[in-house]
Structure formats: C-alpha cells, structure tokens
Amino acid sequence: MDLFGIFLFLHLFGAMAGIGPTFVFGRISRQGAGTEHSLFATRVVRLLTSTTAIPLSALVLVSGIGLMVVRGYALFDRMWLLVSIILFAGSFTYSITVQNPTLARVIEATRGGEQPTGEAAAEIARLRIRIRRGGIYLRATATVILVLMIFKPF
User: Fold this and answer.
1) DSSP H or E run through 65
2) Which end of the chain, N or C, is less packed with Cβ atoms under 10 Å?
C-alpha cells in the first residue's frame, strides 16, 4: 500500500470512528434528560468526546494534511478544501474549548446525585442549552464538511 492509501485509510477511519458516533450524542442526552440517568448520559457523552471523538478528529486533521502533501495540493487552489479546513478548525476548537469543558461543568454540578435547586438548577439548565446548541453546530459543521469532501462543489 502506498502512502496515499495509508493516509486515506486513516482519514476515513478517523472520520467514521471518531466523528460519526457524535451524531448520536443528542439522542443520548435527550434519553437521559429529566431522569435519574441524566448524569450518566452526560458522563457517557463526555467520555466518548474526550477519549474517542477528539483524538480521532486530530487523526483526521493529521491524515488530511498528509493527503494534501502526498497529492501536492496547494491550499488555495481548491476552495472546497480551504472552506472544509476552516470549518474543521472552528468546530475542533469549539469542541475542545467550549463543549467539552461545559460538559465537565454539568457533571461537576450534578455530581452529588441530588437534583440541584434554585440558582444552581438554573445554571445547569443554561449549560445544557449551550451543550445542545453546541452539538447542533458541531453536527451541522460535520455535515457540511462531508458534503464538501464528497461533492467538491467549488
């Protein structure tokens, strides 16, 4: 197998195994919402994000750069590629700096096992809204990148 084939395998594997499962995070969270399983659902999402999605997304980035180098792609010659990289950089940064820390804050705030009341409950509700909106942004961005990678529209 040549270097291109290796990079392509790593790129597709990282996308499928790392990014693909993130599309069910919203469903996992909704299933646990408002029940005693809420903390468990949030822990599962954070665990999968930290141990699978983020590391394999980094693999997608590195292998994508490898594909560009092997093929001799100039970044500004293919706008679909440039837009994909910009979208990826934004969503990857958001995932590491906002989404994952927000998940950690919800886990910490609900660690005691009892449902918080008052201002603490309101803060958790705000954090969960941020997580939900962030998840929509991340899934939408991944979908757009997928479309750009397959159809190369410009």
Assistant:
1) helix 54-71
2) N
C-alpha distances in angstroms, 131 versus 34, 52, 65, 94, 138?
15, 18, 29, 11, 10
Is the pTM above the cut of 0.70?
A: yes
The span from the CA of 43 to the CA of 53, in Å, is: 14
What are the structure tokens assigned to 9, written together?
């395998």
Type of residue numbered 37 = H
Q: Which residues of 41-52 are buried (b: 16+ CB within 10 A; e: fewer)?
A: bbbebbebbeee
CA quadruple 37, 109, 115, 30: dihedral sign: negative
